[in-house]
Amino acid sequence: MELRHLHYFIAVAEELHFSRAAQRLRISQPPLSQQIRGLEDELGVKLFERTKRQVHLTEAGKVFLERSYGVLAQLEQAIAVTQQIGRGEVGRLAIGFVGSATYTVLPDVLSVFRAQFPAVELRLHELTTQEQIQALYHKQVDVGIVRSAIIEPGLSVECILQETLVLALPETHPLSTQTQVSLSSLADELFILFPAKMGPIFYEQIINICQQAGFRPKVAQEAVQMQTIIGLVAAGLGIAFVPACLQNFHRSGVIYRPLQEQIPKTGLYLTWRQHDSSPVIRAFLSLARKTTQRESNRDDT
User: Fold this and answer.
1) DSSP-H helix ranges across the chain
2) Residue 261: HSE in the Cβ half-sphere, 13 Å Cα cutoff
3) Distance between CA 163 and CA 268 in Å, rounded?
């Protein structure tokens, strides 16, 4: 039995007339009659009662018609779901992200992705850059949003945002009265830094900025989450270099000031397993690129 036999049977069952069914199927009547007889022989039961003037479904034919509808409906559903999966519209996606991404590109990307791919189940994990690398290797996340241009075997990386670093100061700090702060004025300050082992590239960037200004930062505290760093600044435990997006994190007791000098920017990067061909991952990467590019163009204007 082939799928076409079900279509032939349904056409005859709905028309209750072989000639009209043949016209509907765009075949001649004799082959159609032959196919129906072959189907009945295969099933070992009559599906139709035939007279010279009328065609009627038998009781077995009525049941077979109902089940045939169900088979075709399931097939259509299977085809639709398969095509959706192929387009990345159905499935699960685990996303790792650094906390600072929530103050810039991540909310917009997630909003647009949810609107376009509502059937994809999202699982979000706030992790440091190093934690995301390990999570990717262990397939605990599918895509990462990290703070550094990592170079790791088997992982692809792509920059989606470049932003300046600003200085976070306690609002009572003497430098808070300045509209811009010079790096040279920070030599004696206590710093709150992101731990080197959790984000070595970002950590080294901060160290290099200070060394180029003629000093090595005095580290008072280390903190893993950017929000924690800002909280420690508010408590007066030190100052910190943070991505400019952290200015969207409103915390009493903290002010942000740009630097006088031109310093290297910090980036946000997408990272994923190089050979992972999941349509859901491809769809997310494509949408993230488009969304962040629109945001970048809007900022430029």
Assistant:
1) 3-15, 18-25, 29-43, 59-86, 105-116, 129-137, 200-212, 226-234, 279-300
2) 12
3) 8
What pLDDT digit, counting tens, does each position of 235-250 carry? 999 999 999 999 988 8
Overall average pLDDT of the 132-154 stretch: 93
pTM for this entry: 0.69
CB 61 within 8 A of CB 75: no
Contact criterion met (CB below 8 Å) for 222 and 128: no
Residue with tokens 């032959």: 34
Mean pLDDT across the chain, nearest whole number?
89
Inter-residue contact 234 to 226 (CB < 8 Å): no
The Cα angle at residue 81 between residues 80 and 84, in degrees rounded to 5: 90
The amino acid at residue 165 is: L
Phi-psi region of 286 (alpha: psi -120 to 50; beta: other; left: phi over 0): alpha
Q: Note the pLDDT of residue 262.
A: 92
**DSSP secondary-structure letter at 198?**
T
pLDDT score, position 188: 94
**Across 98-253, where does the E strand assignment appear?**
120-126, 143-146, 155-163, 165-170, 190-193, 218-222, 240-243
How many residues are there in the chain? Answer: 301
CA distances, 228 to each of 129, 146, 207 (Å) = 16, 18, 20
Let me know if 70 is exposed, middle or buried by CB neighbors in 10 A (0-12, 13-18, 19+): exposed
How far apart (Å, rounded) are the C-alpha atoms in residues 114 and 122? 9
Compute CA distances 177 → 180, 237, 256, 260, whole Å.
Answer: 9, 19, 11, 14
Amino acid occupying residue 105: V
Query: Nearest CA to 37 among 50, 46, 49, 26?
Result: 46
Sequence-distant (6+) residues with CB within 8 A of 300 are: none
Separation CA 274–CA 109 (nearest Å)? 21
Tokens of 134: 């390990």
